Amino acid sequence: MLLALLIFVATLTLVIWRPRGLGIGWSALGGAALALATGVVQFSDVPTVWGIVWNATATFVAVIIISLVLDEAGTFEWAALHVARWGRGNGTMLFNLIVVLGAAIASVFANDGAALILTPIVFQMLIALKFPPKAAFAFVIATGFVADTTSLPLVVSNLVNIVTADFFNIGFARYALVMVPVSLVSLAASLLVLRLYFRKSIPATYDVTHLAAPASAIRDLLTFRAGWVVLAVLLAGYFAADPLGIPIAAVAGLCATAIVAIAARRPAPLFGRSPSVAAAAPEPPASSPSGSVAVQVAAERVTTAPTTATWRTRGTIAVGPVLRSAPWQIVLFSLGMYLVVYGLGNQGLTETLAGVFATFGDGGSLAAAGGTGFLVAGMSSVLNNMPTVLVAALGIDAAAATGLTHEIMVYSSVIGADLGPKITPIGSLATLLWLHVLDRKGMHISWGTYFRIGIVLTLPVLAITLLGLVAWLTLIS
């Protein structure tokens, strides 16, 4: 057990710090190789672990590719500019709408997509609106926070959701039935807590005339329009895949292929755009230090309104760099890290956690939800939510709870793994990258500052969300 724990800590340290730019996938695979060499895990465990993570990993990569392509087309900037105009110059209304927009993006494009793509767009919008640093800080923190706290509603909204749903054989429709209302509770609680915490920082008014026209954000009109069709097919496919026994990775993969093919079509001349404006349009860089071309491009967009229409009628997206910026390392990370975690289970951690979860279950619904949710949240904040979710799943499965208690514990572990990472910077890899992107934009947030804000915001939202889960599951069971 001690050896397995040391291997886990060493692997997680390499994943978080990434010395000399070492990818998270190679770090995790190194830990897995060490676990195999020392007998902590057996080669016969590899197919078992891959069977747990392959669908989740492939779905996650496909969804992120869709979000990157749509971001290159201007979809998210277009939405953000519309939302800013709907605020009608009211700072509080703008704050509310940005939080709701973040929740909507997180539900479909996962928490990583919402935090890493929307945050730079919001950041640039705040600069255009001439918000003071204190106000900009409030909006940026809110965007990052809500990306995780509302990544509950669908299986695809967070990688840990997919892992848990696959492990316990929860269908897409059943998961949505349970977690969509619970996510609305989490959204309401998040907005309430954020409003209270930043009540003195949110400006009373802002000048809408400083914003660009939403149409100016669209850089590939056909991809922009096709994106809405692809998203409709994607959501319909998720629900249809369950009864047909089709993995959701297949649905997400086909939709990702379709939108990439549309974006990669042969470029044509500009239409409805003056040469001077066309020349000013930024081209996507060949690579991005932050690991995402979409993040880098979004962070550099000009948000002042141009004098002429700015969309293009044919393909203008450099698909190659977008595909290269997709999180391919997550494939290696999932297999490697989960093998290391599986080794912890083999060495006795599963039995230990099973006893703890069984004790929670014996205390009734509230104890099962509160105990499981807060334990998983605490583990996620310290150990990272990716390995924690599999440890929790193994423990809950071994606890042998049944009926409503078992279901409460399963969904509470998802809530804990989704919200717990907001307590500390190391709770999720997306948070670490998000902080890096902000640092590059001149907004440095120290780990101490993040922790002080994160724990104050997260704990009440977590408690309210778990109560909502118990109430809703009791009602529909």
UniProtKB/TrEMBL annotation:
Q: Which GO terms describe its biological process?
A: response to arsenic-containing substance
Major location, coarse class?
Answer: membrane
Compartment list: Cell membrane
Q: Name one GO cellular component term.
A: plasma membrane
* Membrane spanning stretches: 51-70, 91-109, 115-131, 138-160, 172-194, 222-240, 246-264, 322-341, 353-377, 389-413, 419-438, 450-475
Annotated keywords: Arsenical resistance, Cell membrane, Membrane, Transmembrane, Transmembrane helix
Task: Give the record's membrane topology.
Answer: Multi-pass membrane protein
> What name does this protein carry?
Arsenic transporter
* Source organism of this protein record: Pengzhenrongella sicca
Q: What is the lineage of its organism?
A: Bacteria, Bacillati, Actinomycetota, Actinomycetes, Micrococcales
